[in-house]
Specification:
Elements: E1 45-54, E2 67-76, E3 79-84, E4 94-97, E5 102-105, E6 107-112, H1 128-140, H2 145-161, E7 164-171, H3 176-189, E8 192-198, H4 204-215, E9 221-228, H5 234-247, E10 250-255, H6 266-272, E11 280-284, H7 290-298, E12 302-305, H8 307-312, H9 320-326, E13 330-332, H10 344-359, H11 368-382, E14 400-403, H12 416-422, E15 429-434, E16 437-441, E17 444-445, H13 450-466
Parallel strand pairs: 1-4, 1-5, 6-7, 7-8, 8-9, 9-10, 10-11, 11-12, 12-13
Antiparallel strand pairs: 1-2, 2-3, 5-14, 14-15, 15-16, 16-17
Length: 468
């Protein structure tokens, strides 16, 4: 395979005081310094001798998860360079012993609101609309641009340390300077991210400006147009769809999260607006009818499932088996402040458990392998990025997670694939690579003063609470 070196990663937001990403690894005892990630790009890395490699590519490994045992993974120039056994290392390569570890693609979170770290655990007795009125709206109105940076940085780093390497962030209407700080925090974290920006009428110019000036220059950033769907706003919805097509991005809409949303008839509105197709990501989609599921399948509409948020807000249980039977693409999301954590292991377990409890059938979709795929390649498919991420396929970008199963919550070994979903926790994530760059090593974020990040978020929260 012929490879070309990717341009070095740099922030175009430096003038706004962007925080440089610290890179590199501590030298091993008795040896010279290990090759480190630097401004010129990530260090070539060989993960040697992984006990279990879940490639998510049946053409690379065995079964639907593409499993390889006692295998190596080579990362070079930000890409998956090779997968196999006894891969040779070049002089200067960073070689990491992955013996006894599990290696898989980074998790893809296709629906979040990272700023809502500011209201974690808040309004815990409210349903969706009670929570929106009591926690979401009032808090957002009080957050200025600098504090937005602090809340988003906290949440982005939490997602990263938990093994999320790509996040789709649905952003409420905010001014340009607040978007700049929001994007600065995402960029500084090292995550691959999609900034789905919503604007009220007349905001098309701002969305376009944010994309062209703030997102397009960043190698790990991309855009979507965020919206809400309903019959009362079909003309505005049509303009959002046209804007998304003009920019060459997806439209991202909340759809039928609450049973009362049926009165807005959002699926009909999206169809009338000409937005019902593969360029549409529907978040939640809990209360779809049989006909709407069939239409979603026919038009290749994608769905983001957020089980922990849906449970927290008493919103209902998505019809995953019916969506799966029809072939609708579904990925997993955290949904910001009402997920309360960035734990994709918990999201996977909830996605499985909700359907088993509802149907009283241990074999109902999603199975354990199916939910692992939803959390990785399935999410990438939903947001049109499966050609770049979601599996450890040679040529794709090197977004990789290493799990340590030798912990009190995970051991002893019985069925590691099942244990990832049923026993896994963020503490099992020992290493995280995004675009080949090592951002978590030996259980710690690389070059991040987490105590400082937390202190800054606490101070920001105190200011927001004290704002009248």
């Amino acid at each position: 395979m012929t490879e070309s070196r990717e341009p070095s990663r740099r922030s175009v937001l430096a003038g706004l005081g962007s925080v440089p990403l610290a890179v590199g690894a501590a030298p091993a005892a008795g040896r010279g310094p290990r090759p480190a990630d630097g401004p010129e790009g990530p260090a070539p890395t060989l993960l040697r001798g992984a006990e279990l490699l879940l490639t998510m590519d049946p053409e690379v490994g065995e079964g639907p998860l593409g499993i390889l045992r006692h295998a190596d993974l080579l990362l070079r120039h930000g890409r998956i360079a090779a997968v196999g056994r006894r891969l040779p290392a070049r002089p200067g390569d960073r070689v990491l012993d992955a013996g006894g570890r599990i290696v898989l693609p980074g998790f893809v979170d296709i629906h979040n609101h990272l700023w809502q770290s500011s209201i974690r655990g808040g309004c815990g007795s409210r349903d969706l609309y009670g929570w929106l009125a009591s926690c979401n709206g009032p808090t957002l109105a009080r957050i200025d641009a600098p504090d937005m940076y602090r809340f988003v940085r906290l949440a982005a780093l939490d997602a990263l340390q938990a093994g999320v390497t790509t996040v789709v962030d649905w952003v409420h209407p905010v001014p340009y300077d607040t978007s700049a700080q929001y994007i600065r925090a995402l960029d500084a974290s090292g995550l691959r991210f999609v900034y789905a920006m919503m604007q009220t009428d007349g905001g098309a110019g701002l969305v376009t400006r944010v994309k062209k000036e703030l997102l397009d220059p960043l190698p790990l950033a991309s855009a979507q147009v965020a919206t809400h769907a309903g019959m009362a706003t079909v003309s505005g919805l049509r303009r959002c769809g046209e804007l998304a097509r003009d920019l060459g991005v997806m439209l991202n809409s909340h759809v039928l999260e609450h049973h009362s949303d049926r009165g807005d008839d959002p699926v009909r509105a999206l169809r009338l607006a000409g937005a019902f197709g593969p360029g549409l990501l529907m978040n939640h989609a809990i209360h779809l009818t049989d006909d709407e599921i069939a239409m979603a399948a026919e038009h290749d509409v994608r769905v983001a499932h957020c089980p922990l948020s849906n449970m927290r807000l008493a919103s209902g249980v998505i019809r995953l088996p019916a969506l799966h039977e029809r072939g609708v693409k579904v990925g997993l999301g955290h949904d910001g402040g009402t997920n309360d954590t960035s734990d994709m292991f918990g999201v996977m377990k909830a996605a499985v458990g909700l359907q088993r409890a509802l149907h009283r059938d241990a074999g109902v979709h999603p199975t354990i392998p199916a939910v692992l795929r939803m959390a990785t390649l399935g999410g990438a498919e939903c947001v049109g990025m499966a050609d770049r991420i979601g599996s450890l396929t040679p040529g794709k970008r090197a977004d990789v997670v290493v799990l340590d199963p030798s912990t009190l919550n995970f051991a002893p070994r019985f069925d590691w694939v099942g244990q990832i979903v049923l026993n896994g926790q963020p503490t099992n994530v020992s290493h995280v690579f995004v675009d080949g760059r090592m951002l978590k090593s030996r259980g710690e974020l690389v070059g991040v003063d987490t105590d400082s990040v937390i202190r800054e978020a606490e101070r920001a929260a105190a200011r927001v609470r004290n704002t009248t």
